Amino acid sequence: MPAPFRLERLGDAHERTSFQCGQEALDRYFRTQVTQDIRRDIATCIVAVEATSGQIAACYTLSAASIPFVDLPAADGQTRIRPKPGLNRGGQRPRV
Q1: What is the pLDDT of residue 84?
Q2: Cβ(5)–Cβ(48) under 8 Å?
Q3: 27 membership: H or E segment, kind and range
Q4: Rounded-to-integer distance, Cα 22 and Cα 17, Å
Q5: Domain hosting residue 78, numbered range
Q6: Which has the minimum average pLDDT: 11-15, 27-31, 43-47, 82-86?
Q7: What is d(CA 39, CA 41) in angstroms, rounded to the nearest whole number?
Q8: Closest CA to 54 of 16, 89, 22, 96
Q9: For the chain, what is the domain count?
Q10: Of 26, 50, 84, 88, which is the most exposed, with the fewest CB atoms less than 10 Å away?
Q11: Dihedrals phi, psi of 40, to nearest 5 degrees
Q12: DSSP bridge pairs for 50
């Protein structure tokens, strides 16, 4: 039995405009910003593509980032760990 999804790096052949995960900020980022971040080597984006329809069912975008030690809240003062991981975004299209 073939797998229902394929994991692929997001590319020009993927149709992004119809993807909606239900979170407006993530949807907007995925439609308008993610390819710019990929070109700038700021992020990488993996999509789960439905094998039968070719539609994007889910996406995961990961960026390497850190929060400078001096920018951490004072409440974390005794438990600070260097570096703190940063940006991590993902979304999944709701099932209908």
Answers
A1: 43
A2: yes
A3: helix 24-32
A4: 13
A5: 5-92
A6: 82-86
A7: 5
A8: 16
A9: 1
A10: 88
A11: -85, 5
A12: 5
Tokens at 62, concatenated: 């990961």
pLDDT at 96: 46
Domain CATH for 45: 3.40.630.30
The number of CA neighbours under 13 Å toward the Cβ of 17 is 1
Mean pLDDT to the nearest integer, 12-36: 91
Please state the φ and ψ torsions of residue 70, each to the nearest 5 degrees: -70, -15
Strand (E) or helix (H) holding 25: helix 24-32
Express each pLDDT in 36-92 by its tens digit: 989 988 889 999 999 999 999 999 988 877 666 666 666 645 554 444 444 445 566
Report the amino acid identity of residue 20. Q
Residue written as token pair 């975008």 = 61
